[in-house]
Amino acid sequence: MSSHRLFPDLEPHACGHLSVGGGHEVYWERVGHPSGRPLLWLHGGPGSGASPRQRRFFDPARWCVTLFDQRGCGRSTVRPDLGGGEAGASMDGQAHASHRVVHNRTPDLLADIESLRRAAGVTRWVVAGGSWGATLALAYAARCPQAVQGLALRSPFLASRGEVRDLLSAPPAGVHAVVQAAWDRLAAALAMGDDLGPRAADRDLAQAHAVFRQGGEACRGLAVAWSVNEWARSATPATLQQALDQGFLTAPVEWARRLGDADDLWRRALVQTHYLVHGCFVDMSAVLADLSGGFAGPVVLVRGALDALCPPGNADVIVQALRAGTARIWTVPGAGHDALDDGMVAAWHDALNALAHDLDLTEACA
Q1: 42-85 tens-digit pLDDT
Q2: In whole angstroms, what is the distance from residue 48 CA to residue 133 CA?
Q3: Contact 32, 63 (CB under 8 A)
Q4: pTM here?
Q5: What pLDDT, in 10s, does the model give residues 139-192?
Q6: What's the DSSP call for residue 45?
Q7: How many domains is the chain partitioned into structurally?
Q8: Domain endpoint, select from 280, 304, 338
Q9: CA proximity to 224, closest of 277, 261, 270
C-alpha cells in the first residue's frame, strides 16, 4: 500500500450502543483484526462523529480499533424526555437538539471511554485522536494512565482561550480569498461590530451558542457560516483554490452543502460551542502536569507546519511536559489541519508504525 493513501474501505465486525448514563447512549464500532493490538480512536470536534473514512487511518492487519461517537454526536442518542432543553421543534426526530448537551462534559466523556474499555474486555489500549480527539486522549491518559499503552496524536488542540478566540478573529491580511469570504460571512451572521478584540471574540462565541441552543430557522444559516469558517481555516491552499474554482465566492451556500446537511451542521455546532464556551470543561495545564509525573508510555505526534486551527507549537508543549525520550514529532511542511492531506496521511502511517515498533520492543524486553 502506498504510504500516502488511506487503507481500503472496511466494515465493522461489531457495533452497537452502550448506555452510559444521563440519558445518553453512545454508538460504538470495532474494525480491523479481532486479535490485533487494541486501539481507541477519538474523533475531533467537539461535536463531530466517527466517520467510515476514519476507519481507514489504521492498518486492519495490525490493529483492533474501537471508534465511537461522543455524547451528543453522530449516531449516539439521547432520551427524548431528558430535561434541559428549550421549547422548539425537534431536529432529529428523537429529542430537541439542546438535549444533546445535557450531562455532556469532558469528565462524562472520560467516563464513557472507561465504560467502553470495560465492555470490550480490554485491559490496556493505545489511544489515538486528532484535534479535539487529541485533547481528550491526553485527558484520558492523565486520568487513567494504567489503561493506556501509548498515545498517537494528530494536530493536538490544547483548549486554550487563544485557540478559541483565533477561530472568531479576523484572518490576517493577504489570506486566500476563500478564507476571507468565509470569515466575512460568519461576521455578518453574528453581526460583528468593529470591535474584534479578545473580549469581542468571547462575546461572539457566547452569542453563537445561544442561537444554537434556541433552535429555529436562524440556526441553519449561522451553522453553515460557522462550519464554513472552520473548514476554510483548516483547508490547504490547494483545497481553497479548488473551492474558488468551483464557485465558492459566487454561491457559497450551495457550495457549502457538501460539508453536510444544515441540521447536521447545527447539531455539530451546538455541541462544539457548548464545549468551547465552557473552556472545554478541562484544565490542560493540570492534565499536562499529571502526565509529566504519571505517564511514561510512548507518544507520537503529527502536525502540519501551517496549521491555522491548532498551532504547531502545541506538539512542542506536550513533548516538554512529558518525560524525555517518550515522545516524537512528525512535522509535515506545507500542510495545515486537514487530516486527509497526503503528507499528513503518510506521516500518520509512519508515526503509528513507529509506535507499534516501540510497543513490540518494550513487550519483547519485558
Answers
A1: 999 999 999 999 999 999 999 999 999 999 999 999 987 655 44
A2: 10
A3: yes
A4: 0.92
A5: 999 999 999 999 999 999 999 999 998 888 888 889 999 999 999 999 998 887
A6: T
A7: 2
A8: 280
A9: 261
Catalytic residues: 131, 307, 337
- The C-alpha cell at 240 is 481553497
Maximum average pLDDT range among 12-21, 72-81, 242-251: 12-21
Q: With respect to residue 7, please indicate whether it lies within any of the assigned structural domains.
A: no
User: What would the grid cell of residue 294 be?
Assistant: 504519571
Considering the domain architecture, whether residues 201 and 300 belong to the same structural domain is answered as no
pLDDT recorded at residue 326: 75
Let me know if residue 5 belongs to a domain: no
* 328 within a domain of the structure (yes/no): yes
Determine the straight-line distance between the first and last CA of the chain, rounded to whole angstroms: 32
What's the rounded Cα separation, in Å, for the pair 300 and 305?
16
Query: How many CA atoms, within 13 angstroms, populate the side-chain half-sphere of residue 67?
Result: 26
Residue 300 covered by a domain:
yes
Q: What is the pLDDT of residue 332?
A: 97
Cβ burial of 292 (10 Å; 0-12, 13-18, 19+) is middle
- Residue after which a domain boundary falls, among 226, 257, 280: 280
Residues β-bridged to residue 32: 64
Q: Which domain holds residue 314?
A: 14-159+282-365
Sorting pLDDT into bands at 50, 70 and 90, what band is 354? very high
Assess whether 115 and 33 both reside in one domain.
Answer: yes
The whole-angstrom separation of Cα 134 and Cα 42 is 7
- Please report the pLDDT score of residue 150 as a whole number: 96
Which runs of E-coded beta strand occur in the chain?
A: 14-21, 24-32, 37-42, 63-68, 77-78, 125-130, 148-154, 299-304, 327-332
Instruction: List, in order, residues 6 or more apart from 311 with CB less than 8 Å away.
Output: 163
Does the pLDDT of residue 290 top 80, yes or no?
Answer: yes
Q: Within this chain, do residues 137 and 32 fall inside the same structural domain, yes or no? A: yes
